[in-house]
Amino acid sequence: MQERYYLLSLGCPKNEVDAEVMTTRLEESTFQFTPHPSQADFLIVNTCAFIDAAKKEAIEAILDLAAIKEEQKARGREVYLLVTGCLAQRYAEEIYHEFPEVDSVLGTREYGKIVERCKALKQRAERICTLPAKGDSLAHLKKPHKASPDRPYAYLKIAEGCSNACAFCAIPSIRGGMKSRPIEELVEEARSFAEAGFKEQILIAQDSSRYGQDLYGEPSLPKLLRELVKVPGIERLRLMYVYGDSFSDELIELMQQEPKILRYIDLPVQHASDRILTAMRRRETRSSLEALITKLRSALPGLILRTTVMVGFPGETDEDFQELLEFTKKMAFDRLGCFTFCPEEGTLAAGMKDQVDPAVAQARYEAIMSQQQGISRKANEARIGQICDILLEGISEDGIFFTGRSYGEAPDIDPVIRIAAQAPGHETGDLLRCRIVTAGDYELTAVSLEGAYELSE
């Protein structure tokens, strides 16, 4: 009889790739996935620990699965609970102490050991309280894995870890310094995803713009992209997490020339006050960011630009915040996400003086998001009449529309587009030629051009 497992993955797309690796290894062995945790022999939660909210979500998930484990134990079933990922890497001892229901943890360099650990737990029938091992952070990615069949796009993790050492970020201490994967390995993985039917592949890393710096002695994202566009079956390549200080002219020129590279850029700026940027240990300045954004929009007509900012960083004054507010209004980002500063253990910023009152930080968050609502609406309305290809992802809750994403929407963080389509035979994963017909603050509606369907205003 096959052992059944349930795997819940939390956090960012980079975590999702690690979960895909574990899923592939388990199913290559003797394990079968079940979507019902109460039916599983092994309960696995892949955790995030980037910010406070992520840690709380992970702890709640552990408690929920621990309760299911105890319910099954009361019914005479032996069930094992494993915690993997960033929280396990960072707080393994605390997890063992605070959650006696947890049978074992695996750190961020141990995803490839998931089958071995599950089998060992079953054989011993007792906790295995090891601490996360040191080792190669890319080891689990060196064997082929399958992308999740639950979505029509695949994540291509091009590097692990980060060497930027921003003052507020714990990722380097959790995941280690940046380690890039070889171009040949990535091309082969992309080819396998394309052969499996994934038309869109999304390049992810903590800092994609510095891809290859450690491996080839210089940032090599354009070199990688030139090889990926040659892969048959790939129709869209999306870039995520590209930093402003290393966004090269070579990359801009390649995006101009190659239609497969989507004119969508996730450019995390964090702030606009030079004083705060310096304190954050960022390499950009307000003037350098403004110059880059102006250049990008001039070189890449139709570009959709997304950013992330942080409010409430230690020492942030009302004047600093006003500068950020003015900058984001002037730059008019199509999409913007905002975080309030959270002092992360072990980071430089956690020990800084002049911590901002959380209530003040929250008010600043609300002000910037209120401003962005109008900016996003204006950007969306400017797209009315635009003709674009939309990747179908599913059906809306009311059952009337397809849902999907054009070049201008990244999964999970951007809104989906509702599509009215009359022509038969469409299914998830299809690229459908559409015209955008209505827009709101955070939503768009389109009609298919494949057929005579018209949406009444």
Can you walk me through this structure?
The chain is an alpha/beta fold. Helix content is 35%, strand content 21%. It has helices at residues 13-28, 52-74, 86-98, 114-124, 171-175, 183-195, 213-216, 221-228, 249-257, 274-279, 286-299, 318-331, 358-381; strands spanning 3-9, 31-33, 42-47, 80-85, 104-106, 153-157, 159-160, 179-180, 200-204, 236-239, 261-266, 304-311, 335-340, 387-395, 402-405, 417-420, 431-439, 444-448. Strands 6-9-10-11-12-13 form a six-stranded parallel sheet, with helices on both faces. Strands 2-1-3-4-5 form a five-stranded parallel sheet, with helices on both faces. The protein has a five-stranded mixed β-barrel with strand order 14-15-16-18-17. The relative contact order is 0.08.
Report the portion of residues in β strands.
Answer: 15-25%
Shape: globular
Q: Going across the major beta sheet, what is the strand order? A: 6-9-10-11-12-13
Counting H and I runs of at least 4 residues, what is the number of helices?
A: 13
- Main sheet summary: 6 strands, parallel
Beta strand count: 18
Low-confidence segments, given as residue ranges, are 452-457
Instruction: Determine the structural class based on helices, strands and strand pairing.
Output: alpha/beta
Rg, nearest Å: 23 Å
Mean pLDDT: 93
Oligomer: single chain
**How helical, in percent, are the residues?**
25-40%
How far do the termini sit from each other? 57 Å
